[in-house]
Amino acid sequence: MFISLKKGEQVRVIKAIKIFSKNPFDTRLRNHELQGKLQGKRAISVGGNLRIVFEEKNGYIEIIFLKVGTHNQVY
Question: How many Å separate Cα 36 from the centre of its chain?
């Protein structure tokens, strides 16, 4: 959950979302498909161990951010 992140982590999340809004496939984000119980969803790297899990619809016209947290928290 965003609110439970440390201030520096929140800043990194906001920066990643800004990058994502300009180019969802910017290589810094490492945008990738997920497998297993999260199949059909995607994730981006926020830096360090932080990830954002999201759903993409209509060719990236609609994005639903689902989870943000450490690798272990979101997967």
Answer: 17
Q: Residue 49: which CATH number?
A: 3.30.2310.20
Decide: pTM greater than 0.90.
yes
Number of domains in the chain: 1
Q: What is the mean pLDDT of each run of 10 residues along the chain (75 residues)?
A: 93 97 97 96 95 96 96 90
DSSP string over 12-73: HHHHHHHHHHH-TT-GGG--EE--GGGTT-EEEEEETTEEEEEEEETTTTEEEEEEEEEHHH
Residue pair 47/13 in contact (Cβ under 8 Å)? The answer is: no
Q: 14: domain range?
A: 2-74
